[in-house]
Input
Amino acid sequence: MSEQTSYDAIVVGSGITGGWAAKELTEKGLKTLVLEAGRPIVPEQDYVEHVPTWEVKFRGLGDRKKQLADQPIQSTCYACDEWSSKFFVSDKENPYTTAEGKPFRWIRGRQVGGRSITWGRQSYRWSDLDFEANLRDGIAVDWPIRYADIAPWYDYVEQFAGISGEALGLPQLPDSKFLPPMELNCSEKLVRERVAKHFGGERVLTIGRAAILTKDLNERAACHYCGPCERGCITRSYFNSINATLPAAEKTGRLTLRPFSVAHSVIFDSKTRWAKGVRVIDANTRATLEFHAKVVFLCASTLESTRLLLNSSTPEFPNGLANSSGELGHNVMDHIKAGGADGVIPGNEDRVEFGRRPNGVYMPRFRNVKSKHPDFLRGYGFQGGGYREGWERGISQTGFGVDFKNSLRGPGPWRFSFYGFGECLPSHDNYVELDKERVDAWGIPALKIHSAWSKNELALRHDMAITASEMLAAVGATDIRPFALDEPPGFSIHEMGTARMGRDRKTSVLNSFNQAHDVKNLFVTDGGAMVSSSCVNPSLTYMALTARACDYAVQQMKKGEI
Amino acid sequence: MRRREVLQILATGAGLQLAPSKLLIFLREARALIENHQSLRTLNAQQDATVKAMTEMIIPRTDTPGATDVGASAFIDLMLTEWYDDDDRQRFLKGLADVDSQTRGLFGKDFVDCAAAQQADMLRALGEKMIEEAAEQSRVEHEFPADASFYPMLRRLTLTAYYTSEAGATDELHFEIIPGRFVGCQPASPIKEVPQQK
Output
């Protein structure tokens, strides 16, 4: 029996954006092939969120030597642990290189669901403070869209994904269509009140806005607060492709999901100047296969979609498909993090939280919102939260015996941490290219990444430590420990840019609907499309842009334009 | 000393020429090497006995199980064999040997043969040294192992072995896999008494 090779649409990738593209395109009537490089995931077998520490060999410390050998880069990510390392790639099979003196941490997942299985679930709308930023500052190019263009699509994806959170009415962080917020804990409530009092209402602490259900939605159950979402969720309470979008696409009867399908290149028809389909290497048989479609959506993640286009050069596009602008691969961004502070919050020693809330707090950006900061452009938001110290505090204590054991039976002091995520400016000098000397396990050229923080990002990180410490001091914290760690780009796992949108085809790769300027039936709807980086987590915006681009593509097909 | 050498010494009676205190030590080491418990891969029986004694002192059996009940020394043997690098393992084993050297110097006996008060003195001395070292060392966050010497390593391993075990997590800390709800701020319930374990 020969395999079907012709479809209405091909989607490359099954993560956050691939799942959305699959859902939207199939629901709009297109027979859609989703190509996923990795293996299938069977939740009943692969999800391990309820496997306790005593049932894993190294009690949660991970198979250190194996990880050092197979996943030396991936295992630096907190989520790549003894349970979830299987949801991260082998660094051996998936190499990348970096420019001398410019480290970049690229954290990747190749399986059905992609990184949506392990993502942090924080979900925030961007605002016109973000969409107008480049124009206002005269940096890079202007976004071709404004908040009003994307707002209805935020509404749309939020009501399906399910975003819990608290409405604040802030212009710099528009409210979503929220499910009920999760509760703040004792120390967070205290910090919220005191920060509001000391900083004139300019700094607001709120519960994290998270793609986790606080009540049942679309046959998915409300969260049961077991804690480690990155290991999967058998009740489908947090949003990922396997829990939500792929089942919706499956339901239409028009989805073909093909795992073990490593996309090699986009096939370009030089006569029509359209994308004809996608060339694939079957990860099991190593055979090269071709699949054809009327429209191609690249949703393979920022750097993978760009790598695919760079590897799809043609005589017409010698520097990568759809790259007449020369901007493909350029302007790679990530949020700068690892600046902040933590401290002990006295009080509430006789009170505890119950359950493990898989969500922290959020403090929306307050720098360069109402007033202008002399040292840097843009700003940052704080994540973090309050927690009571656990048994680990006993390691550095000297006690032993019955009294010591009893002292660890209850929780330790309340601590609170502020952890900043700051905006990264787009720069043509931060870019990726194909490394001619390195290939991955399937013979596809690896990426070489050239990326470094600019002075502006480093100034943001420095300021995070200062403002976090000053807030902790103001709320009466003790043992305040500021930090500003020297982390390389990439490690926020919010990589963006490299195939940016724009109004001018001479300076951008995609138009305002994520459609390639040069190739009409080719769309890139992952983080590659981003023109600036905001300081808030980008995934919700990818979802909205993907749904919007699918709607546009299908309209164009109906009009006969595609 | 290799196992073969020990067997040779025992066979020739050469060990009997040692002074009585040395002889006891020799015989213990010999027994440890020969009787090395099959399930242990790094620790010999003597080392295992010392680790068992020390871990049980840190987390003793009370109304809930203690370190020995949850197999802390077996976990430590696993970590030394499969998890740590060679130099970390050597540091741990040397530290363990130093404990016996010190108790021999102070009390004329191996740690396991010391009286409870002497053993407690030894742990207190190790604790004081740990605090001194920690003060010297700049703090390294989120790194494991950041422990520069034997005693903090032992404490980390003991507490990890205990509190991540089923008994430690559930009997001692009342960990629930599926809490089912989240309450942000509620009064701490009084610590429940747990029935005496077997």
Q: What stands out?
A: Chain B touches chain A through 48 residues (CB under 8 Å). The longest strand of chain B covers residues 183-187. Strands of chain B lie at 183-187. Chain B has a mean pLDDT of 83.
